[in-house]
Amino acid sequence: MTERLSNTANQYIGAAKQTIGQTLGYPDMAADGARQKSEAETAQKVADARVHAERLQHTAENSTNSTIGGAKQTVGQTLGLPNLAAEGAAQKSNAETQQRVDDAKAQVRGAGNELEGKIKQKVGDLTNDHSMKADGATTEAQGTLQRNV
């Protein structure tokens, strides 16, 4: 979350520098602001992709552990091995609980992205920065998708 805040702050600072530079006729300041904003946007896209990949990996691990746990439980019950059945039930339960935790984290990230997107759109309006406004709409939509998955 700290990385997202840092990237967002750098996007806003860059956009402000760009707007001030353009408005006051300082092309170096405008270019520096555009560069800072672009670098922050790229860094955030990389961070978002990493988080998405981690979520997919955790979901696969949780699903695998739930399936294996369920199989152990069934085999243990079928063969009259209560320790194996209990171990399988615990493994399945732990995997399902971890998946619920991961889903809750995604909900929180989604809500944060929706809010961030709305703020970017407002800042884009105020600074007449159409790319920031569009990026805000995209971020808000990503947040909505994260909350609905």
From TrEMBL:
Residues 139-149 have a biased composition (Polar residues). InterPro entries: YjbJ_sf. Transmembrane segments: none annotated. SUPFAM superfamilies: Hypothetical protein YjbJ. Residues 87-149 are annotated as: Disordered. Residues 115-133 have a biased composition (Basic and acidic residues). PANTHER family: CHROMOSOME 1, WHOLE GENOME SHOTGUN SEQUENCE, CSBD-LIKE DOMAIN-CONTAINING PROTEIN. This is CsbD-like domain-containing protein. It comes from Linnemannia schmuckeri. The lineage of its organism: Eukaryota, Fungi, Fungi incertae sedis, Mucoromycota, Mortierellomycotina.
